[in-house]
Amino acid sequence: MSRRQILFLTGCALILLCSGGWNYYQIQGYHQEIETLQMEKQILQQQSNAREHIYNQSLDKAELHLDYETWPHYFDAAEAMVKDSEGNFERPWAIFLVKEAESYDIDPFLVYELLKVETGNTFKQDLVGPETEYGHAYGMAQFMKNTAPWLAEKANIPYEQDLLFNPYYSMKLSLVYLDFLYNQYGNWNEALTAYHRGMTGLQEYKEENGNAKSEYAVKIQRQAEKYQDFVAYLP
Q: How far is the C-alpha of 17 from the C-alpha of 74, rounded, in Å?
């Protein structure tokens, strides 16, 4: 709703009030509705800005090598994800993930399998995880409120809780986090276990088991290995 429309409707409401058409409480309810619409508009604008920022950042992060020779390899890798998910992982998401993962030098199928595990193979973008002592996890990549804000800051992108339900935003944060964790530990067993359990949880797991080969980490890596033929042809 535009500013002009809001002013017009507000004026109409005042006229009705003065003429006895509406009472005070109806007007108050009307103003509350206007405020809600304005807040929804602001949220939508923030989501749009975040999508644009993520897109522009992906262009700046690495040169695009999409031409008649390389594009089919990106498309084939993305199609493998769409097919494996039976269409639950949508094609635009898959293409974005394959290209964005290249910017971080991360196997896109590793991230795809992580998202599959986190969502129980549903890839629901509006997923809310079960309540834990730390709260709920949100979105396709299942980020919690205590993790997502500093990752967004690290990625230089805006943060709002509702953005965690944006699949592109969620994938972007997952790549930023995985990149951070891999650089921190130097191997995927520790990086993935830390993603799943947190960095403190990783340390506790290693103390109890003597290594970081959690079922979560091993499963994701094993499943991703099935797609190495696709990864080999990516630039």
A: 61
Q: Residue 13: what pLDDT?
A: 52
Nearest to 138, CA basis, from 156, 151, 154: 151
First-last CA distance in the chain:
45
54: containing domain = 1-61
Determine the Cα angle at 94 with ends 90 and 95, to 5°.
Answer: 120
Show the CA angle centred on residue 166, arms to residues 164 and 201, nearest 5°: 35
Residue spans of beta strands (DSSP E) within the chain:
137-138, 143-144
- Give residue 59's pLDDT: 43
* CATH code for the domain of 98: 1.10.530.10
pLDDT in tens, 69-90: 666 778 889 999 999 999 999 9
Number of domains within the chain: 2
User: How does 76-113 read in b/e, with b if 16+ C-beta sit within 10 Å?
Assistant: ebbebbbebbeeebbeebbbbbbbbbbbbebbbbbbbb
Provide mean pLDDT across the span 170-182: 96
Q: Which residues contact 182 (CB under 8 A, 6 or more apart)?
A: 106, 188, 191
- Cα dist from 158 to 35, 169, 187, whole Å: 23, 10, 29
186 neighbors 71 (Cβ within 8 angstroms)? no
